[in-house]
Amino acid sequence: MWGPSLGDNDARPRQILISMQFTSLTQSKTWALALTALTLASACSDGPERPNVLLITLDTTRPDHMSVYGGNAKVPALERIVAEGVRFDRCISTAGITPMSHAAILSGLNNYNHGLRVFHSDKAGFRLPDEITTLPEQLKANGYQTAATVSSYPVSEFYRLNQGFDMFSTGGVTSGELDLSHQQKHDTSFDQGGLTSTQRRGDLTVDEALGWLDDAAGEPWMLWVHMFDVHDTSVVPPQAFSAKRGVQYPPEGTRIKGDMGHVWRDRMYDPELEWMDLQIQRIIDQLEAQGEWDNTIVVVTADHGQGLLDGLERHGWGKHRLLYDWSIQVPLLIRAPGMPAGKQVSEQVRTVDVVPTVLELLDLGSSSELDGSSLSGLWNGKTEAEARIAYADALNLLDDHSPKERNLPPHQYDNLFAACDKDWKYVWHQTKPEHSELYHLATDPGETKNLYAEDHPEAQRLHAWLAERKPERVQAPGASGDGPSASALGALGYGGGDEEGDEDLENGPDSTTPKDKQ
User: Fold this and answer.
1) Are 184 and 495 in contact (CB under 8 A)?
2) What share of residues in the chain are helix, strand, coil (percent, to 5)?
3) Paired residues of 343 in beta bridges
């Protein structure tokens, strides 16, 4: 902790002010942030230098493929972060889709509380409401410079994930027309240039981040770096990089048909993980050169995973969106000044725990309104009385960009709500509850034996947990709501056509649907 200890009389008003940030009125949020800044400025002005905050989110990243979790992809930069900090063995995200899960990472709230529920819909929210307070907003109110360099549309300002950032950049990725009436094909395949209309490669994103760090002197900062590389093969590392890893690209623009789409997605996954790790090392090198590494809190996580060939084999799906572990289990690595080094935490944690953890590390308190809670007790060896239950959802019936029923695996075309406590996972199928799922993860980590029965005590227990929170409640977007174009989302593989397996998509289409594989 960097700040001085506060007496009980000082701590109480600080907690009240931070809690005020989560009221439903934008005006109250603004005043709360301002009052919190004034309260904390006097308390912390004479303390030691305040730590910086570096948040790195690796889109579509499964932990089990990285060497830091025992996988084959060599990630020495991430291994260093763990050597100096903590690795969480099991971390669960709130969705298998980028905007919703990033909103949870930035707010500390589950999807049903932060309100960003789908890619686009006239029935459910698809933008982060302004009244939701994000981590960068809280830090900005306390004198932090804030910046974000991101790599694709699903984390862009269209979803209002820019809230609280002084500088927010997608680096030349442009929006196109706001036309959600049809889905488009990928506009590139095996592009080595690094920048297309829909995404940019990680090295370009980090180039911009390093430039911002050059100028971020004098005041503490928060920087969010988002990399998208492993999501697909529309944009790829230079051929020379991948050739050293045994991969030779087809000619740029080659249409990869049928099952070869899955093969290429799997083949490129580990090399692109290593490419992203190389970019993380560049950030570490610059922070060391600037003398800021030792005073920087580092959090590395992901929004969701990817099915790849093993997800296709087990559950008929090679991408994400669904609620199996290959989609919602993500890495979580934290390194901070003064924390234990080289620790591993086996208890289940959640991405909603990131915000309260950072706030505690900065001695900024937290709020009972958050769905997450600080992780510091776990890495300090404290035993929690109850396991943390993780939440995730996929509102496939409400999302305009969900694949059609005929293209999803059987029974997945529904609104899905998951609750899991490490040993057990329950997935409630809202409209057809008879197809709900229950897995004993302790004995069936691959989620291949559905034990669901209406009277199963574990299903009843976890269903009661869900029912208490009413995650099925949704709010329609406001009159001002709009979003990215269908062509932008389609080009990233989020539209129905790409996940459905429409023919001849240039970035590894799935021309053989799950039903064909039965």
Assistant:
1) yes
2) 35, 15, 50
3) 86
Average pLDDT rounded to a whole number, residues 292-317: 97
CA-to-CA dists, residue 460 to 44, 75, 419, 470, 510, angstroms: 48, 41, 11, 15, 37
Token duo for residue 55: 């948040």
Alpha carbon distance 165, 296 (integer Å)? 18
Q: Beta strand pairing status for 415-420 and 424-429?
A: antiparallel
* 3-class SS of residue 247: coil
Is residue 27 classed exposed, middle or buried when 0-12, 13-18 and 19+ CB atoms within 10 A define those classes? exposed
Q: Is the dihedral of CA 244, 249, 252, 256 positive or negative?
A: negative
Identity of residue 160: R
Confidence at 505, pLDDT banded by 50, 70, 90: very low
| DSSP label of 445 | T
Q: Are 144 and 134 in contact (CB under 8 A)?
A: no
Q: Is 80 helix (H, G, I), strand (E, B) or coil?
A: helix
Give the residue from 298, 310, 283, 272 showing the smallest Cα distance to 210: 283
CA angle 446, 447, 453 (to 5 degrees): 160
Residue with tokens 């590395």: 300
Question: What's the whole-number average pLDDT of the chain?
Answer: 85
Question: What is the DSSP code string of 203-225?
Answer: HHHHHHHHHHHHH--SS-EEEEE
Residues 6+ apart with CB under 8 A from 508: 232, 233, 256, 260, 261, 262, 264, 265
Provide Rg for the chain, Cα atoms. Answer: 22
Structure tokens at 205: 């994103």
Strand partners, 296: 52
Asked if residues 220 and 51 have their Cβ atoms less than 8 Å apart, the reply is yes
Q: How far apart are CA 402 and CA 499, in angstroms?
A: 8
Using one digit for the tens of pLDDT, what is the confidence trace for 433-491? 999 999 999 999 999 999 999 999 999 999 999 999 999 999 998 744 455 554 555 55
Whether 176 and 486 have beta carbons less than 8 Å apart is answered as no
Which of 422, 420, 425, 418 is closest to 346 using CA atoms? Answer: 422
Q: Where are the alpha helices (DSSP H) in 292-339?
A: 308-315, 325-328
Question: 463 and 455 in contact (C-beta within 8 Å)?
Answer: no
User: Would you state the pLDDT for residue 433?
Assistant: 98
> Average pLDDT in the 295-314 region?
97
Q: In residues, how long is the chain?
A: 518
Q: What is the pTM of this model?
A: 0.87
Strand order in the sheet with 424-429: 390-395, 415-420, 424-429, 437-440
User: Which residues sit opposite 168 in a β-bridge?
Assistant: 148
User: What is the C-alpha to C-alpha distance for residues 496 and 513, in angstroms, rounded to an integer?
Assistant: 12
